[in-house]
Amino acid sequence: xxxxxxxxxxxxxxxxxxxxxxxxxxxxxxxxxxxxxxxxxxxxxxxxxxxxxxxxxxxxxxxxxxxxxxxxxxxxxxxxxxxxxxxxxxxxxxxxxxxxxxxxxxxxxxxxxxxxxxxxxxxxxxxxxxxxxxxxxxxxxxxxxxxxxxxxxxxxxxxxxxxxxxxxxxxxxxxxxxxxxxxxxxxxxxxxxxxxxxxxxxxxxxxxxxxxxxxxxxxxxxxxxxxxxxxxxxxxxxxxxxxxxxxxxxxxxxxxxxxxxxxxxxxxxxxxxxxxxxxxxxxxxxxxxxxxxxxxxxxxxxxxxxxxxxxxxxxxxxxxxxxxxxxxxxxxxxxxxxxxxxxxxxxxxxxxxxxxxxxxxxxxxxxxxxxxxxxxxxxxxxxxxxxxxxxxxxxxxxxxxxxxxxxxxxxxxxxxxxxxxxxxxxxxxxxxxxxxxxxxxxxxxxxxxxxxxxxxxxxxxxxxxxxxxxxxxxxxxxxxxxxxxxxxxxxxxxxxxxxxxxxxxxxxxxxxxxxxxxxxxxxxxxxxxxxxxxxxxxxxxxx
Length: 543
Description:
- With 543 residues, the protein is an alpha+beta fold.
- Helix content is 38%, strand content 23%.
- The protein is built from 13 helices and 21 strands.
- It has helices at residues 21-33, 44-53, 74-83, 102-110, 123-161, 166-179, 218-225, 240-249, 288-324, 377-395, 400-414, 498-510, 516-527; strands spanning 13-17, 37-41, 62-66, 92-96, 115-118, 185-190, 197-202, 210-214, 232-238, 262-268, 276-281, 336-343, 353-361, 364-372, 420-427, 433-439, 445-447, 453-455, 473-476, 482-486, 535-542.
- The strands form four sheets. It has a six-stranded antiparallel sheet with strand order 8-7-6-11-10-9. A five-stranded parallel sheet has the order 2-1-3-4-5, sandwiched between helices.
- It is elongated, with a radius of gyration of 38 Å.
- The relative contact order is 0.06.
């Protein structure tokens, strides 16, 4: 019996194809003595049929094929084996007592054979040849499987970094573990808000990942079994009782999660951060490759989660800065009722430059709304400078056209390349006239007491281009009129003409209730749900 320390040379199932009963018996006996399992066929048709009806997981690992067969040559059998996708990787060793010339051996190898032996065959030579072919074939298959799993890890990593939130991230992590060979996987991570522990479970009977929640303290228990307070990655086996107890102690006993022996893979990227864990079946980490790949997946998930947390923290800081640029309160002016709403961009967008303002001046109440182009810290800083300059210029008593001119000069000199749209509306002290100066901004919308609406469309070019602005336009308004100023984030939809959004806004505003706060809430609920840009709106009623 041939013995070897290499697992790649261990016993296999071998197909022996030979029409000579004696040769088939002798070859089979040699192989059986080496520990192999032998299946036999007497001609090419029988051998191919045997391969067709054998389940893929039970196919022979190697075929020993005689050249001279009654129905076709061994060369043809080999070619047919190699042409079929389910058997293309099956190695073939030719044997022959008649086709023994160099040209025969060359033909056999060219037509797909992996080795070629001529009779008389020595038992040791046959056993060594089968062992060598098996060793090479198994190593190649293992390398191919590893390459496929590495490719799956790459795809999963991309999905992790593309996840929009914690639920999407744990879902990607659980699916990634399945792609790496786990039969079941549960990914566990604390969301960026640090208040909710998100779980995603995927098993063989689940058509899609199931999302669950648990108390964040569960992570402390998982850390006790793995990393503790350390950073890096760790893999720990948990027996059935331990895993079942962890689930039960944290409200997950009836969640439908598997309770058998589990391997817990955990990762932490920074000291003091909560860890991220992926619980899988024990078989998934039974090999060094399996453990390594799942550790890399968990580490990638932890890094992606850290990126989400950092982005959320940066966005929160940016929003705090942006809100500090907006008015802390509105002036109380007799005869004018005001309401404002500000909705920042979605959590995955950068901060923008939308702003509003209301200043009580000697010439009347000045309302302003504007939008600095871009979504960045620079846009927010420019917005703050523009708004503070507007207040200073307005308090000096300048008219709306002059205000726009001075703001344009400020941008072109201090922020070259930055542009902004600004709409100014001066409500005269008698509350019966609106003086409108609009630098490229969506027009103000006026609703009269009888419910009719109209846009005040007179406007000039946006600021920051050093271009002159037209004179302000004046509009007489009756008592009870309501004015609406908005930024384009409320109505602009990518791919749609702005006029579509303006028409929808006009129709909705005509039907809003008398209460201005309810009007603001209704407009946000009607338009802001599908938007990703900053939104500012200001509503004023003249009494």
